[in-house]
Write a structure and sequence with these properties.
- It is a single chain.
- The protein has a single domain, classed as Glycerol-3-phosphate (1)-acyltransferase (3-Layer(aba) Sandwich).
- Helices cover about 45% and strands about 15% of the residues.
- The chain contains eight helices and nine strands.
- A seven-stranded mixed sheet has the order 1-7-6-2-5-3-4, with helices on both faces.
Length: about 240
C-alpha cells in the first residue's frame, strides 16, 4: 500500500503543478509578499494531498517564535517535505535552492515566478555571495528568507556540515536568525521514493541572539549555536 499511495501522491502533486503554474504567472505583477502567498497555494494542496494519500501528518510547535518582521529561518534538510510544507506555516518566503530546479517543466516555471534565491552550488564561494546579495534584496522586499545550512539533504539520524550563509545573511541584514528542526526524513527519505505514514514533528525555536554581553558573535559561533539547537531537539 505504501507504494500505491506514494504513486498516487506523486501523480496528484505533478498534475497540480500545471494549473498553479498559470496562477504563478498571473501573480507576477503583484507585490512580492502577496505573490508568495498566492503561489504557496500549491504547497497547501501538496501537504493536504500528502495527508490524504500517504497518511503523513504534522505536529507543529513553536509558532509563537515566528517574528512579524523579516528574519532568516534556518532549517535542517532531510527530505522534500520541508521545501514544500514550510510555505504553509511560515510568512511569505524566499528560500535558497539550486538553480537547476527552475528548469523542471511547469514546476520549475511556477517556482521561478515565486522569485526564490537560486544559486549555482558548483562554486561554493560564489554561491554564498549569491545568497547574501539576493537575500538582502528579499528581506528589503519584506519577505523572510529560508536557508538550509547543510546545503543538501542529509539522511535522517545524521547531521551534515553546517555552512555559515544563514549567519552571514542575518548579520549583514541586521535581522534575527530563527532555527527550525524536524524529523521529516523518518517518513519521506532522501534515499527513497516511497513515503511512509506517520506524524512529522517540527519545532520552531526562539531567535538566536546575535550578540552576548554586548559583544557580537562571530558567524562561526552563530552557526555552531544554530547546529547545536537543531541537534539538541532529538527528533
Amino acid at each position: 500500500m505504501i507504494y500505491l499511495r506514494s504513486i498516487a501522491f506523486y501523480i496528484g502533486e505533478g498534475l497540480a503543478t500545471i494549473p498553479f503554474m498559470f496562477v504563478s504567472m498571473a501573480a507576477l505583477p503583484l507585490r512580492p509578499r502577496l505573490r508568495s502567498r498566492l503561489i504557496a497555494g500549491w504547497a497547501h494542496f501538496a501537504v493536504w494531498w500528502l495527508r490524504i494519500t500517504c497518511g503523513v501528518k504534522l505536529e507543529l510547535t513553536g509558532t509563537e517564535n515566528i517574528p512579524q518582521q523579516p528574519c532568516v529561518f534556518a532549517c535542517n534538510h532531510q527530505s522534500t517535505w520541508e521545501s514544500i510544507a514550510t510555505q504553509t506555516f511560515l510568512p511569505p518566503l524566499a528560500w535558497v535552492l539550486k538553480k537547476e530546479l527552475l528548469m523542471i517543466p511547469f514546476f520549475g516555471w511556477g517556482l521561478w515566478a515565486s522569485r526564490p534565491i537560486a544559486i549555482d552550488r558548483r562554486d561554493q564561494r560564489s554561491a554564498r555571495d549569491q545568497v547574501i546579495r539576493q537575500g538582502l534584496a528579499k528581506i528589503a522586499e519584506g519577505r523572510h528568507v529560508l536557508i538550509f545550512p547543510e546545503g543538501t539533504r542529509t539522511p535522517y539520524g545524521k547531521t551534515g556540515n553546517y555552512k555559515r550563509g544563514a549567519a552571514v545573511l542575518a548579520r549583514e541584514a541586521g535581522v534575527d536568525i530563527v532555527p527550525i528542526a524536524h524529523d521529516a526524513g523518518r517518513y519521506w527519505s532522501n534515499t527513497s521514493w516511497w513515503i511512509k505514514p506517520g506524524t512529522i514533528r517540527c519545532i520552531i525555536g526562539p531567535a538566536i541572539e546575535r550578540s552576548a554581553n554586548g559583544v557580537s558573535k562571530s558567524d562561526r559561533e552563530l552557526t555552531d549555536e544554530l547546529k547545536h539547537w537543531i541537534c539538541s531537539q532529538n527528533l
